[in-house]
Amino acid sequence: MPTPSMEDYLERIYLLMVEKGYARVSDIAEHLGVHPSSVTKMVQKLDREDYLIYEKYRGLMLTKKGQKIGKRLVERHAMLESFLRLIGVDEAHVYEDVEGIEHHLSSNTLDCMTQFVEFFEDKPELMAQFRAFQESNKTDDE
């Protein structure tokens, strides 16, 4: 199982591969806000763990294992964003909150959250009732 740091890299590499068709060390470093040397070290580690194939000066390519996990991580991130937006988390906090919690939830919890999101997306009348409930329970501090 990848560490949270490895997950961040795999998620970003997967997204870059989907968006651009390739992922360069410099692109990964820019998106994650780290030094290229840190990316190179992590990419080498991911290569050793069979998540990707890395050839110095030639680039990298996700293995099937890396693609599967990368896709799952992107889907997890998107679902958590949907969940937080659904329950009314202020948009300014959604991304940082997802980053803070995404590595610390069990598969069971993620499955339950996914079902919750799907239920409310399919029931707009209940969502409207929930929003009205939220409005009526706002405190003066909000």
UniProtKB/TrEMBL annotation:
Keywords: Activator, Cytoplasm, DNA-binding, Manganese, Repressor, Transcription, Transcription regulation. Pfam families: Fe_dep_repr_C (PF02742), Fe_dep_repress (PF01325). It comes from the Bacteria. It is found in: Cytoplasm. Signal peptide: none annotated. The keyword Ribonucleoprotein does not apply. Residues 1-63 form the HTH dtxR-type domain. The keyword Manganese applies. Belongs to the DtxR/MntR family. Homodimer. This is Manganese transport regulator.
